[in-house]
Specification:
homodimer, alpha/beta, 8-stranded mixed beta sheet, 6-stranded antiparallel beta sheet, 24% strand
Chain lengths: 401, 401
Amino acid sequence: MKNYFKTVIFIAFLSLATQTFAQEQQAPPAPAARPAFQMGNAVVSPEILPDNKVIFRLDAKNASEVTINGEWMSMGAAEKLIRDDTGLWSATLGPLAPEFYGYTFNVDGATVLDPSNAQIKRDGSRNASILLVPGKESELYTADNVPHGTLSRVWYDSPTLGSTRRMYVYTPPGYENSRKRYPVLYLLHGGGGDEDAWTTLGRAHYILDNLIAQGKAKPMIVVMTNGNPVQAAAPGDNPVEPVQASFMASAGAMGSGKFEESLIKDVIPYIKRHYRVLAGRKSRALAGLSMGGMQTMNTTQNHPGMFDYIGVMSMGLMDMTDMGVQADQDLDAKIEALKKSGYELYWIACGKDDFTYEGVTKLRKKLDEHNFRYIYRESTGGHTWANWRIYLSELAPQLFR
Amino acid sequence: MKNYFKTVIFIAFLSLATQTFAQEQQAPPAPAARPAFQMGNAVVSPEILPDNKVIFRLDAKNASEVTINGEWMSMGAAEKLIRDDTGLWSATLGPLAPEFYGYTFNVDGATVLDPSNAQIKRDGSRNASILLVPGKESELYTADNVPHGTLSRVWYDSPTLGSTRRMYVYTPPGYENSRKRYPVLYLLHGGGGDEDAWTTLGRAHYILDNLIAQGKAKPMIVVMTNGNPVQAAAPGDNPVEPVQASFMASAGAMGSGKFEESLIKDVIPYIKRHYRVLAGRKSRALAGLSMGGMQTMNTTQNHPGMFDYIGVMSMGLMDMTDMGVQADQDLDAKIEALKKSGYELYWIACGKDDFTYEGVTKLRKKLDEHNFRYIYRESTGGHTWANWRIYLSELAPQLFR
């Protein structure tokens, strides 16, 4: 009996220790041979070396080929792992630039996660194992020893969409200890994502924690909604009532403007009633990426004067007629109305390799025709969370000034 | 350009659709041959059939053997998947009893998650793919169409443990819309777990939502801490400062009583200051499983009269001297003091096959010697979350009556 208990506790704490080894830069180099403690899944992977090379390991005794694909590689690329005589496969890659990467293994044709790595990120229906290479560039979204805001999963009624829906609300450090009121950033995810995306993939809460601690951003509330009109919450947290989400219905819903309507009618009033917010346009920002960028454009064009700070990331004027989404015939009039309404900031960001680049160029041309004031930030890279994390870290300091 | 965008959106919504198919009971039967839409990971797995048989599928063209182990099987058991001529492996298992299961595949010796299943649960450093078989028994913790409480990740200062630490706080539906005060249940996880465990694995927030909606439990606040003194937060959310968590240090910390001290000195005062709680012992409950059960016993024995409701799950009087944890020499006096202090409920629950069963029997014998009033609930099964979910659903209705 004693031994059973001891074993359970031993495994439990071994797990914690392995976890720590795997994720800390200070991890000791792994022994060359398989050490005695490598029971079950206790293989150490990934192991980040001091020079930012990374060792990946997988126990697969009977596999004939094991490869790895990581977000630092091109899509579909693969590096081979080498088998030792115990059936442990490994590869040492890099050095890798400091970044929050996803990666997967392929074992004899099956694309799988790293079983030794407890940390996983979900992007819609796809998961990847997490590799956080520490360094200056990844510091902005690393969980650091600074005061942390509270991140809450809140359910609100949406009469507009006919469901009770879930959103994430970040309240800044100190919120609970004061009577102060705060400005609000509404932050929208892209197609295929959900209310988890901006924290799990975007690490928005840590970006805000760090910027606020450094005095670079004003303390603010950040509201992260689920932008899919047909989905009440992320998979697994979606109430059991089946969502009628065929592909065409979803695409249609995306172009329906219904989410945008619910943002105005349901979300913003809920936040006003339940949080200590500063009222008025000067304390209200709306930003989004990709599909969320489209929703940001739609919402702000249809409600001029409502948001003084507007951020459009990786989205422009796209031809979506094939998907049943018609171009807005009143676009010119709406841009004029938004211009006349006055606003503090209209910020557009896009990567040079982003597939929306052409659409962003069209958007800028259209805005230029109207002498519409905006700031354009062009980055390297494409349609990636690496870029969106950077964009948020650059946008947040410009808000509510 | 148009096509790129269309493809991305298509994949995004296809992902959503696949997700929905995979997780809803109403999923249509999968076609026998691989349909055209099965690009990449879009294989449907798991697929729950109307009779609760479940089809598992994995794309692994070059594998020589694929097996599955699920929590409905014994540990280490394996069922083989069969390969079709396209390299898609599958097995139809069950029918399975309604339950929230974990499962993993083994591909040529590598133990991996199901890449078609976005839903994953983490137990310490181990992950498993989630299979939620719907039915009467699993209804108690299913995300249902009832009012939902808010689940917040809150950071608090712990001078006792020398760190800023994270906990989950559940506030019941209606909390935000009232000025009412609520009783508080402090709910502790087991060894190897962390502050995520009671929601991710225990689904405590949905259990409370459902019990409250049915009028079976009183609306209450539930506070779920991280019970590992050396860990400020779950892996990945733990601030970058490396935790000095060697195995012996961890085991020592577990027996140090430091977490229990921090619960009294740091956590409870924080909750009092920041939430609308009903003051006093009548509105305070403490419960925990395994290591958390030990912490519950320690805390309530050292603070008689502080908690009127006490729940000890899957834990008793264990001999832990080998781990450097000495038996409490004052146990008899402490039991007498707790008895004299008065309390409403001392609830002990254990499974017949639990490895702590002998320790629980010892605990009951000891309490009987003192004519100490308690309720004992013996279940089938062992040291499992299936049991702890049931225990919580039975304990919560008895609280604050």
